[in-house]
Amino acid sequence: MTKVLTEEVNAFKVRTLNDKYVAIFMDATYIPLKRQTVSKEAIYIAIGIREDGTKEVLSYAIAPTESTYVCNELLQDIYSRGVHDVLLFITDGLKGMKDTIHQIYPKAKYQHCCVHVSRNIAHKVRVKDRKEICDDFKAVYQASSKEEANTFLGSMIEKWQKTYPKVTQSLIKNQDLLTFYEFPPGIRRSIYSTNLIESFNKQMKKYSRRKEQFQNEESLERFLVSIFDTYNQKFLNRSHKGFQQVTDTLASMFTE
């Protein structure tokens, strides 16, 4: 059984990938792993959505901590296996991530997860102001157009800049908040955050808790790939919400 699973891990790692993806979500989660002693290690994952809305786990990496160096290795891996054209990357905004992506995919657009930005805002304001300021920001990323979003953002900054100058300055400097508005309205809710991959990671961690302990990296890899293969089979012929209606539009964006 172990031999079969090891072969599945190897097959997953070397399989050829599609050349084009509309969006790739990248995120890391932590799972306990034994290396002499037990400690939580970062599991980096990339999930891609094609223009027809089908999606799959593309690749993964295991490392003691989060770093752009490991992300670079993961990106090089998917590039070497055929992924050469990506319209948009969505991440939690790890420092240096945008530059890391553009080293390999210089033409790709970049979206800083709006939900992570909202959480950061909440942590930097007083409790009594949290709901109001987060609702103001929510109006920005749920606007009907980029023009409307910019109007809401301007109003928000004007409203809060005296009370929370550092918060508003960080919003002014962030050039990657509204990238998702360059895509069709029907898929914007799916690409303004990393919710898609975070939901997957949450389920994966839930399953991992049923295991007593991962004794080594190989046993963890066998577990991960079994989860990835199940996910990929499940969504092999399922179109993610909104994508099927705009497949032609998305396909044309690759030639722009």
From TrEMBL:
Q: Does the keyword Protein transport apply?
A: no
Q: What is any one GO biological process for this UniProt entry?
A: DNA transposition
GO terms for molecular function, please?
Answer: DNA binding; transposase activity
Alphabetically ordered keywords of this record: DNA recombination, DNA-binding, Plasmid, Transposable element, Transposition
Q: Which domain of life is it from?
A: Bacteria
Member of which family?
A: Belongs to the transposase mutator family.
Q: What does this protein do?
A: Required for the transposition of the insertion element.
**What name has this protein been given in UniProt?**
Mutator family transposase
Provide the species name. Lactococcus lactis subsp. lactis (Streptococcus lactis)
